[in-house]
């Protein structure tokens, strides 16, 4: 992680904490104070209304920082809890976005998440489980990316089930990530043999189901605070407010739509999960509460960062006018005894991240961005694609380009002074 990244992350932690302290206590300090206290005490004492009663983990963690039962103590405890969440969330979001794109776009993605917080916190009250759920989703994604042991995934599923009933989304995130390994294999006599990925998917669902049933049995049954008909009526009456609130997320979904066709297949599956999640959340929740969408923001944010405006325009020109594309021929050292991979066609920097072999260079630690060098062979320019690391002091040759890509910087070697 570069010094700039660390500075931006620290800035985001501070700004997010200030935004939370400015907006959320204001709701509880006015006519909502009784509601915030009731929610917290109802969950902690297991006598709250449904569905809040069955979301015990986050309120109990908040309670660790609450000195007494006053409103001020509760707000202070919730603030401390959220500062801790921000401190863990932004480094995780950095690692997740950095897997898909460049350093600068990763930092832009983190800032975009911070920019959404004023909208999210507008109808947040003390819904600490929403922030904890987002934190769990992000670190679950990182765990998948690092191919960690399945026991760690089970641990995250257990935390998610204790946090909120929508924690079931982790099982489908796992399936979307491992879909290529999860196909059913047919064998004779019409018997199906399930792959390990399918079994793991159902194991995660079983963990969620067992945990959810246990919580309901332990805390007892209570009717939901709003029936389906009441929720529908409330959403209809508050539809203008919901449209205005959700329209603030419209640029996010436009970015997803524009990058969808060229995105990695795993990210496309995450978009499908997000759409289903929004339908379910819109059916069972209040449409004006943007915080309900927090768990899916890390799923779609990498896709938004795939292209900038110039790259979108250039991609459209290539598609519509049949523009000239560049061919990337991967470099394989002569002493490596492997088949040479086939060249790929690219026309923007973002295309490098959609190819598994090229994107692998971006997943090495301290990756900054791609650059290119040029030299002349018999007067003809030759272009070399270079992956730059460690603020430019370390680099690898990726391969040769037939044409330089738009917005790709020219590589300049950097050297550290020798130790004296």
Describe this structure in words.
By secondary structure, the chain is an alpha+beta fold. The chain has 2 domains: 3-304, no CATH class; 322-410, no CATH class. It contains 16 helices and 8 strands. The strands form 2 sheets. The chain has a 6-stranded mixed sheet with strand order 4-3-7-6-5-8, with helices on one face. Strands 1-2 form a two-stranded antiparallel ribbon. The two termini are 27 Å apart.
What's this, in brief?
This protein is an alpha+beta fold. The protein has helices at residues 3-29, 33-44, 57-63, 71-98, 103-120, 128-145, 150-163, 169-177, 196-219, 228-237, 239-247, 250-259, 265-284, 297-304, 309-321, 356-362, and strands spanning 185-187, 191-193, 326-330, 344-346, 367-377, 380-389, 394-401, 409-410. It has a six-stranded mixed sheet, with helices on one face.
The structural class is alpha+beta
How many helices? The count is: 16
Rg, alpha carbons:
24 Å
Strand segment tally: 8
Range of helix content: 55-70%
User: Order of SSEs, N→C?
Assistant: HHHHHHHHEEHHHHHHHEEHEEEE
Low-pLDDT sequence parts = 184-193
Average pLDDT over all residues: 80
User: What best-fitting shape do the alpha-carbon axes yield?
Assistant: elongated
Main beta-sheet annotation: 6 strands, mixed
Return the domain count. 2
Query: For the terminal residues, how far apart are their CA atoms?
Result: 27 Å
In what order do the strands lie side by side in the largest sheet? 4-3-7-6-5-8
Beta-strand percentage?
Answer: 5-15%
């Amino acid at each position: 992680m570069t010094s700039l990244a660390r500075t931006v992350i620290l800035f985001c932690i501070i700004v997010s904490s200030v935004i939370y302290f400015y907006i959320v206590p204001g709701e509880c300090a006015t006519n909502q104070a009784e509601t915030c206290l009731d929610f917290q005490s109802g969950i902690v004492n297991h006598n709250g209304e449904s569905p809040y009663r069955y979301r015990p983990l986050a309120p109990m963690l908040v309670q660790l920082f609450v000195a007494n039962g006053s409103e001020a103590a509760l707000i202070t405890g919730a603030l401390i809890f959220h500062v801790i969440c921000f401190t863990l969330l932004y480094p995780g979001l950095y690692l997740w976005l950095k897997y898909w794109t460049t350093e600068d776009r990763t930092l832009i993605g983190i800032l975009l998440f911070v920019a959404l917080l004023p909208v999210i916190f507008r109808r947040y009250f003390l819904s600490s489980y929403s922030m904890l759920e987002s934190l769990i989703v992000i670190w679950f994604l990182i765990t998948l990316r690092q191919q960690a042991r399945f026991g760690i995934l089970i641990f995250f599923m257990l935390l998610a089930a204790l946090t909120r009933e929508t924690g079931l989304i982790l099982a489908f995130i796992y399936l979307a990530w491992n879909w290529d390994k999860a196909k059913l294999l047919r064998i004779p006599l019409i018997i199906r043999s399930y792959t390990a990925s399918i079994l793991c998917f159902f194991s995660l669902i079983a963990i969620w189901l067992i945990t959810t049933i246990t919580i309901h049995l332990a805390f007892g049954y209570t009717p939901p605070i709003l029936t389906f008909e009441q929720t529908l009526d409330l959403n209809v009456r508050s539809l203008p407010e919901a449209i205005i609130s959700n329209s603030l997320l419209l640029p996010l979904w436009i970015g997803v739509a524009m990058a969808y066709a060229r995105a990695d297949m795993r990210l496309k599956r995450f978009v499908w999960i997000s759409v289903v999640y929004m339908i379910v959340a819109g059916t069972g929740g209040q449409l004006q509460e943007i915080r309900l969408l927090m768990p899916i923001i890390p799923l779609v944010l990498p896709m938004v960062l795939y292209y900038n405006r110039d790259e979108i325009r250039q991609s459209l020109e290539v598609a519509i006018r049949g523009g000239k594309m560049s061919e990337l021929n991967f470099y394989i050292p002569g002493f490596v005894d492997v088949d040479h991979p086939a060249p790929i066609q690219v026309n923007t920097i973002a295309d490098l991240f959609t190819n598994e072999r090229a994107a692998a260079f971006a997943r090495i630690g301290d990756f900054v961005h791609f650059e290119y060098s040029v030299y002349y062979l018999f007067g003809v320019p030759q272009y070399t694609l270079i992956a730059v690391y460690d603020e430019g002091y370390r680099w690898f040759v990726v391969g040769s380009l037939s044409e330089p890509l738009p917005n790709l910087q020219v590589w300049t070697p950097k050297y550290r002074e020798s130790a004296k």
